[in-house]
Amino acid sequence: MDVQDKIRFVQSTIEPMALHTYPHIAGFVAIEDDTGRHVGSALRCAVAGRNIIITAAHVVREARSGGRFAVTAVRGEAPFELHGDPARIDDEFDVAAYFLPAEYPTHGLAFWPKERIDPYEEKLSTDYLFVHGFPGVRSRFSPLLGSLAKQSLPYGVMLREDELPASMKPFQFAMDFDPTNMFLRDGNAADWLDPHGLSGSPVWRIGASGQRVDAWKPDLCLLVGIVTTWCPDEKLILATKVAPLLDLLRG
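RE: above sequence
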């Protein structure tokens, strides 16, 4: 394929990837005066027979700072209130996980299977990456519904390997978040969007590396990271790789 064919292909993957991953994503909410404030994004995951919700550690700390906190569940319904410390948390890697209780509603929701998590890095730089989460500017509390109304951001991007921040750690990888490089599916330029609230968003590689274009489908995608940091000066976002996350969950 020439460059334009490749661009058209990766643009064509955004909508099917968004539909495929949307049932697995959630938002962490700080409960303030009986209303909700979106703090960060999260992934519902199934590991070792348990339903888990994974996000960034700093998202958990901010959500809990006022006392009560919750995580979104069934769309259009009130968030599900959580209690206590996360089952797993690591501030160095900036990841945390709660084991969800049996009362957590699951109707219409999905949990990402452990078998579709890729802890290896060989294809990070050759595959197309896909982020899906909830930016704060697209989240608002609806008094009528008694819930948070959220519009997700599906975002496709390649691994960033140049002009990386000096503070970047070996367990992280970088993705471009530069408004001059953002385009809509139809090829038109996209408006820049404040990424606050995307922390905790899952990152997948779509599974196109080594595949024929006509053989690609969204269920080839594999989870590879969790968004943790926005670096506005370098115009990028950082994610923690899933290998340390899996180690944390095993612990």
